[in-house]
Each structure stands twice: as structure tokens, then as C-alpha cells.
Amino acid sequence: MKILKIYLCLLLMLLSFSAKTQVNLDSLWTVWNDETQADTNRLKSLDDIIWLNYINYSPDSAFYFANIQYDFAEKVNNKKWMAKSLNTQGSSLYYMSHYEKSMDCHQKSLKIFKSIGNKKGMASSYGNIGTIYNAQDYYNLAIENFEKSLELINEFGNKQQIGGCYNNIGVAYSGLESHDKAIEYFQKSLEIDEEIGFMIGVGNSLGNIGLIYKKQGKYEMALDYFEKNFKIIQEFENESEPRFESSWMYYLNVADIYFSQGLYENALIFLLKAKEVKQKFTSLDGLEEILELLFIVYEKLGNKEKAFDNQKLYLIIKDSLASMDGIEKEKQRQFHEQYLLEKQADSIKHADEILIQQAQTLANEEQLNSETQRRNGLVVISLLILVSLGLVFTQLKKVRKGKALVDEKQQEITDSINYAKRLQQGILVPFDLVQSWLSESFILFKPKDIVSGDFYWIEKVGDKIYFAVADCTGHGIPGAMVSIICSNSLSNALYEDKITAPAKILDATREIVEKRFVRSTDNIKDGMDISLCCLNIKTKTVSWAGAMNPLWIIKKGSNKIEELKPDRQAIGFVEKPKSFTEHKVKIELNDVLYLFSDGYQDQFGGKKGKKYMKGKMKKFVLSIQDQDMQTQLASFDKEFTTWKGSHEQIDDVCVMGVRIT
Description:
Helix content: 55-70%
Number of strands: 13
Structural class: alpha+beta
Largest sheet: 6 strands, antiparallel
Radius of gyration: 28 Å
Strand content: 5-15%
Shape: globular
């Protein structure tokens, strides 16, 4: 049986945005599109559109409009609205579980708010940062940021926000299992909300206190608080206000208490009430937990038929929830569009086939006997791939709604992409060559589609071995096109510009990539995240630099991971670029280095269909650190496959491990 979660309430994502009244969306769009309106009016109207219509229901759309909002605020040099736009971007990313990117937005927002002395904005940013830390189980950091937010809020005295902040500190303490501290802050929140008559906050605090007592086994006290919470729920809840549809949580929590006491008949009564509420509101959220406990209770009561029926429905709902994931739906849409292709001119098809055959012949027949020949060959192949992929990408763009599926054309494109896969593999260093340079190493390389936006890069110059894992914008054909540009840019920096320091290589690569993209009239902001190492095999030192992606080091005999933090800027267009930071580390025999893209830890899976996450990945790496590197490769692959289960792979995956020998 699942353990019920404590409710989080009044997330400070909304701290700087008080509850917005319902406004006609058409009129808001009219204001935004009216260039005669004051800039602040236009920005506010778009803000209302995002928070009323998108943030909770379509966070990816909210993020898109928040980017437009930021660009406009930047154009008119309105720093306050630039910071607010970043806040909205960060909130959108939070709701999509992109915690690191969300954190980056809120830290940027905080920096701007500080620069203009906007304390309300600073309080919002600290609260948002605390919320993200809380979601990642970094409870002490969450409390630290919530307290900074609270200190600022106290200066301008918004009691509703003070109550919300107390509540969130209580939630963080509950995560630390500090039950007395959690109740202390929930009580503070309760007192303030009662004083100002904010009954939703009162209900949340009562419910959270009840959950703490339930976790402590103080069932009578828990039931008392749940009952008080339920009375407030009833005041607000009605069929026309489904956002207050939360009585099912009361019924489920009470049922869970009775179940824990072995009072299965009582538990059944409340579970059936919870199920009735969920079915009335046709909402799947929470129904999975209700059905899971129902089939266990029926089993305890000896009603095997009812137990089986609820277990079957539980499994159906569980699968439905997984398939309804926002990311999954977007991937399905993209996949569906690939089939809606028109008949293309035979000449394009013929030119495509000839070009790919020529490139394949070159890849097969050229025997690159020296490093110079190999590099020259890679450049030629890369150019051919770019042209080939460009033609294929153009074909994929030729989509019209309402057209029937064109199986023949889809097969042609699939064949072309398969050719492209072979050619992309041609620009990756063969693994037998990798092992000749790094004898104890592995590379887990799992593209989401046939071709990949992730790639690994390795070169040897004298006593130095350069190796990297990079993650380019997108995946599939667009990602592969960007990866080719970035891979060649790294090689150009190393061989043509004779740059040897990793940080300087990244600086030069950024300049090359930016120059390539700046030629476009579409203001392309694609680029690359990367973790780049230089191993000096003579001095046994590692020089490292990272753009968004870290380096993990496990020292021989240690049970801890040393993490080198990357610079929070990508390779590509950056508004205010800074030089990358060089890190130097002394290493010893049997130390292990890990480089990776974000695809592994971002994968959805497990029983609850959640992200794997960075913390779980760290624990897994520590559990297999003593295995030889090829066994580690198999372990990484098995762990990923098991976690993913029936879920679709959502991104390219690349993990490299190197043991110092």
C-alpha cells in the first residue's frame, strides 16, 4: 500500500502573483496585441493570460508565452517585468518537473530583483527556490530559503503570505521527520489564517497537522484535525467549484487510519465515499490510491471478487495516468505528425538516396590510417550528413492536417534516417579506440530516436586524453544536426586553434557555434550542455570544465561522490556570456569519473511513473562503483530499462564512466 503524501499548500510560486480575478481572455489578448497600449499594460495582460489560462493546465504553453513576455520586457528595458517573466518561466518548468532549469530561472529572477531593490520580488524568488529544494528532498536548503523569504515578507507585512511561508517551512520540517517543529509552524500558519479569515489556508494547516499526527500514530488527534479540515472543505466545495474538490482526501486519510487500526469495515465505508467523490468529478488524480487501498481492504474482508474488480480497475487507472503525462502526450503528437506526410517529388527522393549512398560508400571505403586522415574524413562525412539530414528534415516539415497516413513515404524517411544513423556513428570514435586510450571505461549510448542529440567526444593529443559527454538541443534529426556542428567545433578548437585547456576549449567552441547560428534570420538559440575532461596520463591530473552538466568523482575506497559543479550557461547563444571555469583535480589509481547528459535522470518510470532523479542516480552509482567498467555498463543499462518499464524513453541518454589506471 502506498504511504499517503502530506499536502503541500500555498506554494510560493504564486507569492508575487495574488489571486487573479476572472477576466475575459479575449479582452486580455486585445490589450497585449495593441501596440498603442502602455508597455506595462501589455505585459500585465500577457501575465494574466498565462496565469489564468495556462500555468496549471498547459505549463509548456505558459513557458512559451513567458519567453515572449521576457523578450518584450527586455526590449523595453523593464527589469521588474524581466524578473517576473523569469519567475513565470521557472514556475512553468517546476510544474513540468524540470527542477534544475526551474532553479536557474528563479536564481536569475532573484538577481534582477536584488539589482532593483524589489523586496517583494526577492521574497517570491527565495520562496520559489525553497519550493524546488523541497521537491528534491533538500529540506534544510528549503528551510533556509523559506526563512529568507519570511524575513522579507515581514517587512511589508502581508499576513496571508506570512501564513503561507510558515506552512511551507512546516512541510519542509515534516520531510525531515521533525514532527514537533512541523506542527509548530503549521500552528503558526493556522493562527494567522484564522486571524485574517483566510479559510483555505486554515483548512490546509488543519489537514497538515492531522497528517503529522497520523504519521506519529496519534490517530484520535489526527481524526479530530481531519474533521475540522473537512468542515472547512464543505464550506467551499460545490459542484460548480471543482478546484475545491478535496473531500476525497479527507475520506482517504480517515480510511487509512481505520485500516492501520485493523478496522476494515470502517475503512471500507470511507473509501467508498472517496471513490464516489472522485467519480463525480471525473478526476483520475488520487483515484489510483483509493483503488489500491480498496482492493487490499476487500481482500482483508475476504471478498475476493470485489478485491479482484478493484485491483483490475487500479491497474487500468495506473496505466491511464502514465499515458496522460504531458510529456508523453507531446511526444505522441510529434510522432503522429511524422505520418501525415504528402507525396514528395521523386527528384528529392532520388537526390536523397544518391547523396546518402555516396556518403555511405565514403564511410565504408576510407581507411583512416592516421589521426590527420581520420579528422579530415570526419569533416567530409559531417558535411554530407548535414546535407542529408537537412533534406530529411525538410521532408518531415511537409505536414498538413487532415491528410491520410502515407506509409510508403514514412518508410522512405525511416530508411533515410537509418542511413543517417550509420553515418552519425561514423563521426563517433569507435569504442575499441576509446578502450585503447582508456582501458577501464564504458559508454552507455541510447538515442531516444534513431539518431541522437547526445554524443560523446574523445581525442588524444600527446600525453593528454580529452573526453566529453554532450547534450545538444533536441533529439532525433534536429538534435543530430546540432550535435554535428558542436562536435566539429570542439575538434576545431583543439586541433586548428591549438587550445588545450578545457575551459578555453568551451569558450572557443561557444564562439564557433554562436557564429554558425547567428547567420540565421530566425534567432536560433540552440546549443549544447557538456562535461569536458582532460586527463594528463603522465601527471595523473584531471582538468575539467562544464556547461550545465557536472562531473562526478568517486575516490578509491570512498562511499561519497565528489561533484564538480558546472557553469550555469550553455554552449550557444548566451545573453551575457562569461568565461568558463577551469577545475583541476589530483587523481589516483582506481578513482572513477562519471560524465552524463540529463536523459538518464530525467526518465519517467517506476511504480509511480515519476522521474528517476539525480539523488537516485547517485545512490545507484555508489552501489555499483566496485564493479569492473563493463559490468557497470550492463548494470546502468539494466537499471534504466527496469526503471523505464513500459514508459516511452523521453530523451537521448549518454553516460560515460572512466576508471583511472
